[in-house]
Each structure stands twice: as structure tokens, then as C-alpha cells.
Amino acid sequence: MKIAVCIKRVPVMDVRFRIAADGKSVDETGLKYDVNDFDLWAVEAALQLKEKTGDGEVVVFSLGPDAVQEQIRKALSMGADRGVQLKADRAPADPLSIAKALAAELKASQWDVVFFGKVAIDSADQSVGPMVAELLGLPCVSAISSLDIANGRGTAKRELESASEIVEFPLPVVLTVDEGLNKERLPNLKGIMAAKKKPLEVKPAQLDAGTVNVVAMELPAERAAGRIIGEGAAAVPELVRLLQTEAKVL
Amino acid sequence: MANVFAFAESRGGELRKVALEVVTAARTLADATGGGEVHALLVGAPGIAGKAAPLGAHGADVVHLCEHPAFANANPEAAAALAAQLLKQTGARAGLFPASAQGRDLAPRVAAKLGVGLASDVTAFSAQGDAIHAKHPTHTGKVIATLALTGTPALLALRPNVFTPKESAKAGRVESVAPVADPAASRVVVKEMRGGGKAKLDLSEAPVIVSGGRGLKAAENFKLVEDLAAAFGNAAVGATRAVTDDGWRPHSDQIGQTGRVVSPDLYVAVGISGAIQHLAGMRTSRTIVAINKDKEAPIFKLADYGIVGDVFEILPPLIEAVKAARASRG
Q: Are strands B154-158 and B118-122 parallel, antiparallel or unpaired?
């Protein structure tokens, strides 16, 4: 089984972001970075699939500056076999540009499964996985929360709004991973040591100009400061009154 | 004159509310750019034709209708091929999709087929000369990006529950269209649909959400949250990640950074402390109520109306008071 996983380096989100002086990017000063949450679950899905089939290779791809090597190494320390950095100053705003660069690299090999996380929590596009599938001419199942692959075919569950669907698909396939499919393993010391010796190839990303550009970034309007209207059951009548007369939602 | 394409999402033979939102938004954009035509695409199993009228009534000049048994469930391969062809044939300046579970699967495929970019989860847009500008929350809603789309067509997936459906004076005509790719030959096939009955209001469409956290102490106590939602009558039930991780509620109920992002008129947080992960999913709710025993809980910094106290003491009288308020309103 030959498995590719595409991962993204994203800022850790528990901070108050600032807009950079150019007015159209996030100020990176002081930010910490990690592998995108959904991409960790994609790596885990790839590793579990390799373990189940008993042979094969898991290759991790990431597009971006040299700093993304830190995230590739994390995936290698979890158990992936080798990594490829598609070198670029930054990930562009146009998801199709990213998809084209990844597809150009992925099409050089035959993959049984190409995994993505459902969405990158920074740019929040949720587009690159299905775009890559389309560019490679592969079937695609996005946002899967269960997965079973055997004998060249697979079954997966997708969560919809208040519903879910069970889908069947042939291999090769592009899958994007939602929360709930698995819990990622933590790298152990042995894995971290082994990852340092695993191959990590660096290639230039073939990026076009794209048709989507960021022209501005801003912080959302602050909510008015919170208000505590009372304590215990005694506050219920006042809450109902406010919902009726002030918020007008009841 | 700029034509605008709109994908009208349906499920189980019924239009979804997002279909009317997307068609209304397409009408707005067409009118703002010289009064071109709105071309909606509706696919479904035979019989879906009977659901086309509301699309015309919300501003579609033409409803392109494709009925096929293999469109009974979502069929993104065949739907994407058809959408891409219609976008080309109608010379559309823009193509609008819902940023729903199905729309976010479909729109990127169409974008790749046409070789154009896509703005996802769009909360506002405008025509700016030759470009279309779209606002798109990033970084778990903590940053708002304005994107300029310079490709033709410009593709946008619109966040549900943001664009209000509005009836239009025009009445559209329905035209049958043949599939481009055989829907029965799609490689990915939906074998089964679970849930989704009309009775259950979805988080993305509900005007009111009652959401529970660890403060409820046990799965069975979610009955209080469900009862409060039932008292409002138009409410859906949500949960925090801690609760879905513990299996008290399904993952699909999770509101937050890695779950659903919602913006209802009223969000009632019950026994939720307000971890950053959760706030990312509900901070744009219009009115927020928080009930929590810890007065230092971060949720109170966001709440328009906070009550400090034991949820087990507060919810029963609140449920009765909400019922009474609705009954007296008639």
C-alpha cells in the first residue's frame, strides 16, 4: 500500500492574533506552530492503514518555507517513512495554486490513497483535497469520520448536517479526514530519534499566480463585554424578560 | 450584464434552506453587476421538478433541472461535471454554492475543473470592478480575510444562515438539462443515508441553539438541554468537544474549532466554561446566554446574559418559563 499524506503547518490558535503592518496578513511575531489538527488525524489514518495491510510506505508532503520541516519531522516521528517539502515562501491564498503544486508532485508516483485533513484551521478553505483529486482524476471522499479499506475498495462515513451518509469507493482514492475518525498517536522517544534519520527531500513548489489574493485582513468586531444578570434560579424571570424585550428572541 | 450561477442543494427530494440563500445571493450579485440572469442548477431523483418553483420565486431566471435516479443521493462527480458545463455555457461571471457539507465537497471540484480559484465559507461579498471581493473568516474566526477573486467565473461558497432568503418579483422558467457525466457511472456511491428526517432542526439552520458542556456531569443529564431546546420550539442541540470526546453526544453535534461553526440568533451555553476551542464555533451568535456555576468562567466574558449557579437548579424553572412565555405569545 503506497500512501501519501499532505499536511500543513498552522499557528496554534489560543492567542489573540494581530494584523501585520501590510494590513493583509497575520503578524507572525511570537506565534507557535504545530501540524494542523485534521492533518494529524490524516497521518494517523495513513499509519493505521499501513499497519493493517502489513506493508507499504507512508510519505508526508508539506508546502511552505523550511520551517515546515518541523511538522514533517513530527509526522515522521509518529511513524511515517519519509517526507517531501515543496518549498515556497508561503502557502498562497488560492487553494487551486496549492492543489496544482501538490498534484504536479503526486502524479509522479502511483498512490493507493492520498490523505488530507478536512480543513486547515488557519486559512479555513477546505478545498485543496477535492481539488487535488480532480486534478489527478481520482475519486474523492471528503470529511470522513469512519474508514474501512479492503481488497481494493473502501467504505467511509461522512457527517452531514443532522445526517450522515455511508459511501463506497474504489482505490486509488483521495480521502479528507474529519474529527472522530481516530485519535492521533503521540510520538515516543524512539520515534523522535528515528525521525531524525528518515529521508526528507526538498523540492521547489511549482506555484502559479492564482486568481485569489488576500487584499485585507482585519480582526472581527469585539463583542460587548459580558454581563452577569444574577445568580441561581432567582435570575430566571429576569433572563426571560431580557430575551423577550431586549434580545427579542422569545 | 453578468450572469450568475447558483447551485441549489437538495436532500431526500427536498430543497435545503441554503438553496434559497444561495439563489437569493446570486440575484443580489446579478442585480449589482448590471442585471444579468441567475441560472440555478437543481439535480435530484425523478420528482425533484416539483421543488423548482421556490428557486424561481427567490430570483432564478432559469432553473436548469436534471432528474436522474442516481441523483437521489449526493453525487458530486456527476453534479460537478454538470455545474462546470453550465458555468461555461451561461458565460457566468460568478458561481455560488452553499458552504454546507455537500457544497464544500462540490465547489472545489468545480473550481479545479474550470481552473479558477474559490472563496469558501464566505460571509459577505461585493463586485469591485473586474474582481469579486469576498469576506472569509480565518484562524478559527479570529481573523477576517477579504479575498479578491480575479478569475472568471469567480466561485464562492456561502456560509449557511448568513444570507437571508428573499422572494423576488421575477418568476423563473424551468429547463431540463441532460447530465454531462453519467450519474450512474460515478466511482463514489452513497450506499446509505442515516438520519436527516425533517423533524430534526440542524445546527446550521436553527435560530436557537442550546448547547451543553461538562457541567452537565453525565450523558443522561443532556435531557435538560433537550427539554430546554424543545421549550424554545425552534432550537437544535449542540455540545462541546469534551462532551463529544466522552461519547455523551455524537461528534456531529460538536461546536468549535474542529467542529461546527454556528451563528444562531440565540445561543444558550449550559455548563460550558468557554474554552477557546469552543468559542471559535459560536462567538458570532447574535445573543449569547451562559449558565455556569463558576463566575470566573471565560464564557461570561462573551455572554450577553450570564447566570451564575447550578444548572440543575436553574434549568427546570427556565424550561417552564420559556414554555410559559411562548404559550402566552400564542
A: parallel
